[in-house]
Amino acid sequence: MLMSLEAQLLVALSAWRSAPVWTVAFSGGLDSTVLLHLLVGLSRREQLPSLRAIHIQHGLQAASLAWPAHCQRVCGELGVPLLLREVQVQAGASLEQAARDARYAAFVELLGAGELLLTAQHRDDQAETLLFRLLRGAGARGLAAMPASRPLGAGQLVRPLLDVPRAELEDYARANGLDWVEDPSNRDERFSRNFLRRQVLPLLTQRWPQAVAGMARSAAHLSEAQGLLDELAQADLAVMQQDSRFAWLPLPSLPLAPLLTLSAARQRNLLRHWLAPLTPLPDSDHWAGWTSLATAAVDAAPVWRLARGELRRADGRLWWLSGPWLQQLPSIDLPLTAAPQLSLPGNGHVYLLGQAPEGVLRVRYRQGGDLLHLAGRGRRDLKRLLNEASVPGFLRGRLPLLYQGEQLLAVANAPHLSVAGPDTWQFIWQVPTNDQGLS
């Protein structure tokens, strides 16, 4: 016996019935209208979290200006509080993607700890997403399409209607006399998804009536396969938890030698898993950059540039650099006073720990020809000292140096490269993070 839509929805949301709030992403269209109506009906008979809706206004077309009023009317009739949010869509190559990014940024800002955002994607959307990504050459992660749930900001995004065909939603809406808005842009077949929805999928289902259901099942199989690949990547990463000698450098990094013992496919799988939180993943052709980096000569300084940063190789490790680490630093010659710390433009801050040496102290970067007088070793070229310490090349131009007049006293975070005694003072550098310019 087939379950009713309400019963299916209740089962899909059973794991989140203790959440503090359920928020419906309410566009006013068919799908979200049905979802909201179903939830209101359930809330009258079941003990559920408090319910509210949010409508995002992109302002991309004239027709959309009337949608907030429609959504307010529907929510008023159902007794559901409605939040209205206007967002600015950044111009770019894909207007659809830019609008989605703006919408989800608003959702992230809204959600509190443990709260749910409920969206109304259905089985036809899942099939459409699978087909769209297949045509773009996506791998298992992309072809797994939309998960039923995933973390979003401080809360959770849940798609409780993913197993429901659109025709069933439409039947429910008509049977219950629901009113919804139609987005005229959905008829514009210049958009790839609309072309698939309006031209390709109807043709496929005409020949294979179960095509949509079959594609949704394939997406589920691929999601399971991706889960296994993630488990393999986690197991491989666990073997590689070797600390860097630069423990004070909070940048994502991996030891290179154990990574290169894996097969090429496992290397890519591990790197995809590791890079996924850091940057959009490269397409197949762009993975040649990894091969070039991995096979470069030992004394080379290869770089693999990705969408939000780059991978570099140094001191036997891979290092992920982004944000301020990719910006050119200005020259500095700053006084280090008795203040708690000195901020360095785009490069964190420095301070002295212990009894400061006498005289006027200044902070600079390397200028070439820098010399450091070390007890028992005499005056040594700084470049040679940094080579001996295997300091990564990307770090050397950023290392703050402490000067007294023209005498170099210390290299930040390197007690062995300092004229100070072991129990007198230390020159400490709090480095910038990778977080898009935030220190």
Structure summarized in a few sentences:
The protein is an alpha+beta fold. The protein has helices at residues 5-12, 30-43, 67-78, 95-110, 123-135, 140-143, 166-175, 192-207, 211-239, 256-260, 264-275, 288-295, 382-388, 393-396; strands at 21-25, 50-57, 82-86, 116-118, 149-152, 155-158, 253-255, 303-306, 309-314, 317-321, 333-335, 342-343, 349-354, 361-364, 371-374, 378-381, 401-404, 407-411, 425-430.
Your description of this structure?
With 439 residues, the chain is of the alpha+beta class. It folds into three domains: 5-225, HUPs (Rossmann fold), CATH 3.40.50; 243-321, Chorismate Mutase Domain, subunit A (Up-down Bundle), CATH 1.20.59; 333-430, no CATH class. 36% of the residues lie in helices and 19% in strands. The protein has 14 helices and 19 strands. The strands form five sheets. Strands 3-2-1-4-6-5 form a six-stranded mixed sheet, sandwiched between helices. A four-stranded antiparallel sheet has the order 7-10-9-8. Helix 2 links the parallel strand 1 (21-25) and strand 2. Helix 2 (30-43) packs across helix 7 (166-175) and helix 5 packs across helix 8. The longest helix has 29 residues, at 211-239. The radius of gyration is 28 Å and the shape is elongated. The model has no long low-confidence stretch (mean pLDDT 89).
